Amino acid sequence: MSDREMVVMGRVSGLFGVRGWIKVYSYTKPRSGILDYSPWFLRLNGEWEEHDVVAGHSQGKGIVAHLLHYDDRDQAVQLLGCDIAVRRDQLPELGVGEYYWTDLEGLRVENLDGDMLGRISHLFETGANDVIVVQGEREYLIPYTWGVAVRKVDLAAGLMVVDWDPEFWSG
Question: N or C: which end of the chain has fewer CB within 10 A?
Fold first, then answer.
């Protein structure tokens, strides 16, 4: 499996109990949404390996899961820190103007005047709106507000156009 075919949904953040269960830090909304997918693909030694999810549930503020063939803590310890991904074709189809964050990361970002601001490094959520982190000569933190700051996304061209003054430094 290539990285383009995979969408990272979380990572293994710890161990839970002695029977091979793992703690999962989920990037999905809601966090328990990661449990809607099986198989998971874990990146071990630089390669994606397929793993069936036997069981999982919310535990406190987090998620715990049990993977097939991981029946004790000693086996599960090798999974610590691994990215958890699913195949892109496992995800639901998006509507027009909707994007997975992973598809936006790496896009070139230009403003309405055609000034190159940099590339999208990552996104993060705040209480009000998501924020695009653009790395270039400067770091820009641009609100992901469609029609206000974000004016156009062209995945085929690898470009996002924003209404942003490059002199307004926000990093």
Answer: C
